Amino acid sequence: MSNIKYILSIGSNKNRSVNLNLALLKIKTQFKLHQVSKKYKFDCIRNQNNPQYLNQIVIISSEYSSEKVNIKLKEIENGLGKVKTKAQCTIDIDLVFILKKNNEISVFNDKTSTFIPHIIVPCAELIPNKIHPEKKQEFLELKNQLKELTLC
Q1: CATH number of the domain to which 25 belongs
Q2: Is residue 119 part of a domain?
């Protein structure tokens, strides 16, 4: 079986930088790491009074199916002691997109919105000219439609 590329979103709003760095170290032990975006600060989607998140996009590859990759990512979260409450999240690692061999992108979980700043902005850094599978526009174009955001 050949390697498939996956796009992950990682984020934390508690011990943010430390937890992102630990997540990246663990991801590297399980998968081939291709690209990592800068760290970006974003408000909590559910409650803007909560601490801000640090988020990154990570591109990996694996011979595993998307379902198996997702299971391994949840194991990494659990191994890092993931705690998620209404106010804080120590670490969140989500499989967001699958990069197909024909260079198209598909959404891994169609129940989750992928048109949110913490996904669009870092994707615009790493894959600016790729087409967002739902919006049918380049990531860079979508980013430019968002309000100005803070880079760490």
Answers
A1: 3.30.70.560
A2: no
Band the pLDDT of 151: cuts 50, 70, 90: low
What is the domain count for the chain?
1
Cα-flanking dihedrals φ and ψ of residue 140, to 5°?
-65, -40
| 82-138 pLDDT per residue, tens | 888 777 888 999 999 999 887 789 898 876 778 889 999 999 999 999 999 999 999
Question: Among 142, 8, 137, which residue's Cα sits nearest to residue 66?
Answer: 8
* pLDDT tens digits, one per residue of 49-81: 778 889 999 999 999 999 999 999 999 999 998
In a domain, 126, yes or no: no
Residue 50: which domain range?
4-112
Residue with tokens 């992950």, as numbered in its chain: 8
Q: Is residue 12 part of a domain?
A: yes
The conformation of residue 129, written as its DSSP 8-state character, comes to T
23's enclosing H/E stretch is helix 16-30
DSSP string, 94-128: EEEEEE-TTS-EEES-TTS---SHHHHHHHHHHST
Domain contains 30: yes
Three-state DSSP class for 135? coil
